[in-house]
Amino acid sequence: MATTAIEKRLLIDGEWVETGEWLEVRSPYSAEVVGRVAKAGPDDARRAIDAAERAMRDPLPAHKRAEILVRVAGQLGRRHEEAAQIICAEAGKPLKAARLEASRAMSTYTFAAVEARKLAGEVVPMDASQAGEGKLAFTLRRPLGVVGAISPFNFPLNLVAHKIAPALAAGCAVVLKPASQTPLSALFLAELETEVGLPPGWLNVVAGSSSEIGDVLVDDERVAAITFTGSGAVGWGLKERAPRKRVNLELGNSTPVIVHADADVEEAAAKLAANAFSFAGQSCISVQRIYVQRTVYEDFVARFLPKVEALVVGDPADEETDVGPVIDAEARERIVDWIDEARQRGAQVLAGGDLDGELIRPTVLADVPADAKVACDEVFGPVVTVGAYGELAEALERANGTRYGLQAGIFTADVRAALRAAHELEFGGVTVNEAPTFRADQMPYGGVKDSGNTREGPAYAVRELTEERVVVIQL
Ligand code: NAP
Q1: Which of 157, 213, 231, 287, when mutated, tests ligand 1's pocket best, judged by the most ligand atoms within 8 Å of its CB?
Q2: Which residues line ligand 1 (CB under 6 A)?
Q3: Which numbered atom of ligand 1 lies nearest the CA of 234?
Q4: Over the stretch 118-147, which tens digit does the pLDDT of each residue have?
Q5: Nearest-CA neighbor of 446 among 429, 465, 459?
Q6: Do residues 226 and 147 lie in contact, with contact meaning Cβ atoms separated by under 8 Å?
Q7: Residue of 150, 162, 403 to test ligand 1 pocket, by largest number of atoms within 8 Å of CB
Q8: Are the C-beta atoms of residues 304 and 385 closer than 8 Å to each other?
Q9: Which one of 90, 101, 284, 464 is the catalytic residue?
Q10: Burial (CB count within 10 angstroms: exposed 0-12, middle 13-18, buried 19+), residue 208
């Protein structure tokens, strides 16, 4: 283990717990051990649920929840560089992007604090029907109950923040299972929450075997909701196995973007080069399929490729690095196989397509068959396809030709084309003159089709983690 390696215990009922077993966390870049975390088993997960249920018997008033959330945002500001270094070490995320993620987590907490203070029901206009005459009715927004949260490796701080901050704003206690490859950021956040005065039981963090802990969260009736971000195979499986719980799913995408002939082609090329390869394409809304109107296709490619070639590939801890490693060797091999499959089926490699040491160089493919894996599945790597289209209708049809539906984008100067795309792209979000990788943390964010069934962003997540209770009073 490196001398600077971080050691963290689990958080259960306000106590930092050792279990006798440890989970090693390795750098995806150097394979060096960067930390270890106490490994939880099913009994630890059950104890965490016991603690969460006990905590909720003594509800925290909204002003206290809001104060805790605001204080965590403040702590994140003060310990911003430490947060970024942890993300960089365990996820292999280039420091530039890791710092951005740490800043976004502050924003997530800040918005969650606002939502805690705003949480309220509404008055029902009872005399609008004969049956309601002489009565007053209003709704209360009640916390659903204990929330089981499962988070992925790719935004190990901010996606954990998107799970635990809105849950606290909603008045729900949480049992969090972070990704096994990146538990350090989650436990860092948990430390901040306890340091600023979160009472025991409101947040419990159990890192360990996903199937064992997942099974406990699914089987235990006290867990009212599961909020999951990760792959579709796991997410939809959880939903099937827990039909009586609220199961909120934030899943993958195969992100398309259209560059229409009237667009600012230079701006589109710059934004798309930056957003197809950031964190080596391991964002659920990393630009993956670029459709360019035929009349500007050559111009776009000529501007796009030098920007891609200029990206610095290397050690994520270097200040200059734009593109680092993918999460592990298995992911790297899969992505290289997918590139080879496209190449064997006639795709042209315009950039990259090979390894720089153990890193995948930013790869641009043209003439890719529509049913090649890189075109229709989620690559989750530094690979983008480019293709030409004739009319907008064709581009919209090709962009929609996927089982996914998280975010999509269009670059155009024509407001009618933009609005048509906004209406016809079958995605949870559509960006105009911005890469579809864009996300601000207060936005409603989530997918349709195979990409999920919910919206995150504190205001929306709080809505999903509370339910309405109507109160009727005879006057
Ligand atoms: P993953 O393999 O599905 O893992 C996500 C989480 O699920 C991890 O904590 C994992 O634990 C856990 N898990 C795995 N098997 C489980 C099981 N049987 N029961 C319960 N939990 C289980 O996904 P990933 O590789 O970390 O993340 C990449 C995926 O997430 C991509 O598809 C990406 O698009 C998607 N994503 C979506 C969004 C969004 O907001 N829509 C954001 C980011 C990422 P272990 O680590 O212990 O296996």
Answers
A1: 231
A2: 150-155, 159, 177, 179-181, 210-211, 214, 229-231, 234, 250-253, 284, 378, 380, 406, 452
A3: 3
A4: 999 999 999 999 999 999 999 999 999 999
A5: 429
A6: yes
A7: 150
A8: no
A9: 284
A10: buried
Phi and psi at 40, nearest 5°, equal -90, 150
Average pLDDT over every residue of 269-277: 97
Strand partners, 402: none
pLDDT at 1 over 60: no
Mean pLDDT of 156-180: 98
Instruction: Give strand pairing partners of 16.
Output: 11
The C-alpha atoms of residue 465 and residue 254 are separated, in whole angstroms, by 28
Residue of 292, 299, 310 lying closest to 410 (CA atoms): 292
Give distance in angstroms: CA of 107 to centre of ligand 1.
Answer: 23
Average pLDDT over the chain, rounded to whole?
97
Task: Look at ligand 1, atom 48, and give the residue with the nearest C-alpha.
Answer: 210
Task: Out of 25, 93, 160, 210, give the residue to mutate to test ligand 1, the one with the largest number of ligand atoms within 8 Å of its CB.
Answer: 210
Question: For the chain, how many residues are written?
Answer: 475
Q: Which atom of ligand 1 is nearest to the CA of 233?
A: 3
Helix runs in 173-264, H state only = 183-195, 210-219, 232-241
Closest atom of ligand 1 to 150 CA is 9
Q: How confident is the model at residue 14 (pLDDT cuts 50, 70, 90)?
A: very high
Could you read off the pLDDT of 409-441 as tens digits, one per residue? 999 999 999 999 999 999 999 999 999 999 999
Using DSSP, state whether 332 is helix, strand or coil: helix
Residue 433 has which token pair?
């003159």
Token output for 110: 């800040």
Cα dihedral 203, 206, 210, 211 sign: negative
State yes or no: is 250 an active-site residue: yes
Whether 172 sits among the annotated catalytic residues: the reply is no
Neighbours of 219 (CB within 10 A): 12
Catalytic residue among 250, 378, 456, 464: 250
Q: Please tell me the distance between residue 251's alpha carbon and the centre of ligand 1 in angstroms.
A: 8
Report the separation in Å between the CA atom of 148 and the middle of ligand 1, taken as the mean of its atom positions.
Answer: 14
Question: Of 303, 220, 276, whose CA–CA distance to 435 is shortest?
Answer: 276
- The residue contributing the CA closest to ligand 1 atom 6 is 152
User: At residue 336, what is the residue type?
Assistant: V
DSSP state letter for 61: P
Query: Is the predicted pLDDT of residue 3 greater than 60, yes or no?
Result: no
